[in-house]
Amino acid sequence: MQFFIDTAIIDEVREINAWGVLSGVTTNPSLVASSGRDFREVIQEIAQLVGGAISAEVTALDAEGMIKEGREVAGWSDHVVVKLPLTPAGLQACKTLSSEGIKTNITLCFSVPQALLAARAGATYISPFAGRVDDIGWDGIELVRQIKEAYVLGDIQTKVLAASIRHPQHVVQAALAGADVATVPYKVFTQMIKHPLTQAGLDAFLKDWAKRAGASPETPSSEAGTNPQQGGVTAQGEPVQGGQKQ
Ligand code: G3P
Q1: Which residue in 24, 42, 143, 235 could disulfide with 4, CB within 3.0 to 4.6 Å?
Q2: Is residue 207 part of a domain?
Q3: Distance (Å) from CA 27 to ligand 1 centroid
Q4: Does ligand 1 lie within 6 Å of residue 26's CB atom?
Q5: Is residue 220 domain-resident?
Q6: For a pocket test of ligand 1, which of 4, 5, 6 has the largest count of ligand atoms closer than 8 A to its C-beta?
Q7: Domain carrying residue 28
Q8: Where does the record place Polar residues bias (predicted)?
Q9: Mean predicted confidence (pLDDT) in 87-100
Q10: Number of domains into which the chain is organized
């Protein structure tokens, strides 16, 4: 399962992208509005930063308006995927844009029949909103699983992009449900990476390293064979100038 980040805030994209885990970014009108940035500028900056698949959503409600906007945003970068709502006009626009070779992401999907229609209209991605389905007491991940099963049985190539992800368990469940992609908010990424045993293990390793024979916590690790002239770091990771023994 690939990871996209679900945000239009450039600092969040930059930070998680530095982990080397992103294959794309999803935005929507609410996320772009809350970033306070110009739509075109922020999409182009994100595309430059991440590459991959960058979803930019149209705001027109009629098919003609969506097609016009879709062609425009697709022209902003080769990485742009045009995001369209799951409405009759959205499907019509999807058919036209995908026939022109423009990648599309059909959003606001809440049922398997909707997802089957989007696939037949040529969607590259379908975005079932797991969290919002959970919000009304149904099982959002079960929706993701059923869409994927129906697509596999129908030999449908549209990718299932699990959206409206609210917590790390949603990410696990989406992967186990067979989602091709999960688009994850910044906060959830910062939760996913943490584990108390990882930190405890690292602390113990570094403590033992600092206690190794002949070494004192201040002695730079460079003493252990790297070039003392270049300096090194202490067991606490602080840089040491000139590798001089303290
Ligand atoms: O990008 C669409 C989707 O991920 C929205 O999520 O948290 O507003 O339900 P949420």
Answers
A1: 24
A2: no
A3: 9
A4: yes
A5: no
A6: 6
A7: 2-193
A8: 218-233
A9: 98
A10: 1
